[in-house]
Amino acid sequence: LFIMAELPPETKKKVSHQKKDFLLQCSFNGRQCDIENDFELLMDPVYGNCYMFNSNSTINRTTSRAGPIYGLSLVIYVDADDYLPTTKASGVRLLVHSQEEYPFPDTNGYNAPTGLLSSFGIRMKKIERLPQPYGDCIKEGKTKDYIYKDQIYSLEGCYRSCFQMEMIKSCGCGDPRFPVPEGRRHCRVKERKARECLENVIQKSGGLHGSFSGKCDCRQPCVQYVYDMSFSAAKWPTPSIELDDCNDTAEECIRKLKKNALSLEIYFEQLNYEVLKELQAYQWVNLMADFGGQLGLWMGVSVITIIEVLVLIYEVIKICCTRRKKPTMNKHHRRSIYDDSTVEMTIKIHPPNQNNPKDSIATAHSENDDECSQNSYAMENHLHRHDAEIPNSVITFCAHCSLNIKQ
């Protein structure tokens, strides 16, 4: 790594896999790819030349259906005979990420071995986190010491930036596995003390993801796209495969492919995606709603109740301010027992008996015997004096007593 870090970019590019030798076949959404223009080079300190598909944000390559037929299909030749003795396995490292995010294949990638058809189904997930005061995510931009220029912020990039700045601060030069900020350089092979310093710091801190990560102020991004992948594999190639660029016998070509090549299928399992969104657990609107509900439950307070209370207060004030006048009675006035009563009286007058003109019968019936008897006597005397003037008739009055006079 120290030697590779000192090489110029063009030299690094030449000592790793070239695009035309690495990518043998490609198809996307059922159509052939333009390998030279559709793939962009990325130089990784660990894996060398990496090639990115659909990395240009101005030209999006989309698919309208899910499934392996409408995804990305590749045949890759790795040439395992050229591997270094320190290489543990033959194959490729695969990583799916957003266009604006820097890839970290050594941390987040998947392995695809040679001699197999590896299928990777993709499911996208969008995560939305809340910033302050509800959370502590990074809303926009990057931290001041972020070493991956022109790339959006990521948690892994923050840890690596923090680790590299600590190496530069302690040893005066940077770790060759990670980029360095402007004005700084990587530690060189000839600088023995610097190399020993790096090794000591790494051992004490536990490495990139050891106890050292607790010293870094790295937080999750507020918006993050995560791609979950499911893996399946089958033997490849089949004996009946058609090979265009193989000059050997069919058996020899199949043997070379099983040793040095592999086939990849990368596709969407479904076109919809999942959204995980953080929300405020308790907002101001919820507080007011709960307060009003509790107040109405325990005190019975409502708009109608308040109006009724106001009306009651108004009536009480009105009664207190208004004085009612009591009726007075004249001491010299004597009320009659018939002032507030209705009198009904029936008087029947019969013609006088010629045989006994003096005989007359006067009867009176009343609820009050004393008062009716006095009225009957007065009426009888009056009628005796006017016998000749009253014709045969019936006179009806209204009174509490009924008086019948016969002549």
From TrEMBL:
Name this protein carries in UniProt: Degenerin mec-4
InterPro entries, per database record: ENaC (IPR001873), ENaC_CS (IPR020903)
Gene Ontology CC annotation, any one: plasma membrane
Bilayer-crossing regions: 295-317
Similarity section: Belongs to the amiloride-sensitive sodium channel (TC 1.A.6) family.
Alphabetical keyword list: Glycoprotein, Ion channel, Ion transport, Membrane, Sodium, Sodium channel, Sodium transport, Transmembrane, Transmembrane helix, Transport
Compartments reported by the entry: Membrane
Provenance organism: Trichinella spiralis
Keyword Transport appears in the UniProt entry: yes
